[in-house]
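Table S2 (continued). Query chain:
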Amino acid sequence: MYHWRVHEQSTADNPDSKQYAYESGKRALEAHLARHGLRGEVSQTKDHGFYRVRYPVAGHPLVSIIIPNREGREMLERCIDAIRAHTKGWKYEVIVVENNSSSKEILDLYRKLRAEGVRVVRWKAGSGEPAFNFSAINNYGVRLAEGGYLVFMNNDVRVSEGWLEEMLGVCARPDVGAVGAKLIFPDGRIQSAGIVVGIGGIAGSLFTGMDGAFSGYLHKASLMQDLSAVTAALMMVKRSAFEMVGGFDEALAVAFNDVDLCLKLRQAGFLNVYDPFARAVHDESASRGDEYTKENAERYRQEAALMKDRWREYYEKGDPCYNPNFSLDRWDYTLKP
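Corresponding output:
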C-alpha cells in the first residue's frame, strides 16, 4: 500500500493540468513511426494519455469486397447502399457470391445490381458438401476478385463513413495481414471489438453486449491494437498474405474460420489489428437461420475439436495477446476468481 499526494496541479486531481506530458507522448509515437520508416498522423483521443494513428494510403489500390448472400434482399440492399454512401473516392469492386437463392425478389435485385456494376457470381456446393460453407464461398469469391486487398463482409453489415480508408491505411503496412472493424448491434451495444482465443471455450469476441459509448478496460474497446484474431464479418486482408497461408480452411464451414485464418497469418509473421476507428452496424447471423439443430451442434463440435487440435499451444499456454490472469468465461477483462 502507498499514499499518493493529490493537489490541483497534479494529474491525479486534474488530468488537464499537464498537457505537456500528453504532447511528449505524442512526440514519442511520432519518433517511433519515423524510426520504423512508417508514415502516420498521431493525435490524442478524448481519453488523456491515449492516442490514435492515422496511416495514409499510398495511391488508390483496388479493393475487392466479397459478400456471401442467400435470399435476404433487404439486408443485401442495405449493405450495398451503405458501401456506396460511405466509400466515395476509392477504387473498389463488389462481388456478391450467391448461394442457393430462388425467390423472385432476390433474383430481381441481382439483375438490378448487375446493371449497376456489381458482380454477382454463383457458388454451388459439391456433391455431399454442406449447403452453406462460409470458407468455400469466400475462397470462391477471392478466385474471381481482382483487387490486391480483400474485404470479407457479411450481408447484414452496414459500414460507416471513412471505413475503407481507415482499414486500408492499416492493412497496407508491410507487417499487417488482417484488419478487423468495431462492430455494433443496431441498438448501439458492441458486437465485437476483436477476438481472444480461449474465451468461451474456443474463441470469443471482446466486450460483446457492452454499451458502444463505453471504451472498456484501459479503453481497449476504443484503441487500435494487435490481437490474435478479428472477425470476418468485416475484415480486410492483404491478398498476398491471404494466398500465402492458403485462404480459409474449408473444413471449417461455419465457425472459427476467421480465427483460424488469423492464426495462420500470425504464424506466417503478420499482425492482426483491431481498428475501432472503422465502425459498422452488424445484425449478426440474421441471414443464417436456425443454428440450434442436432446437425449444426455436431458440426460445431467437429470444428471446435479441429481448432483445439490445430492450435493446441494457444489453448495450453493461452492467447499471447491476452493476460492469463483475465477470465475466459467473460469478455470484459474481468480477473479470474
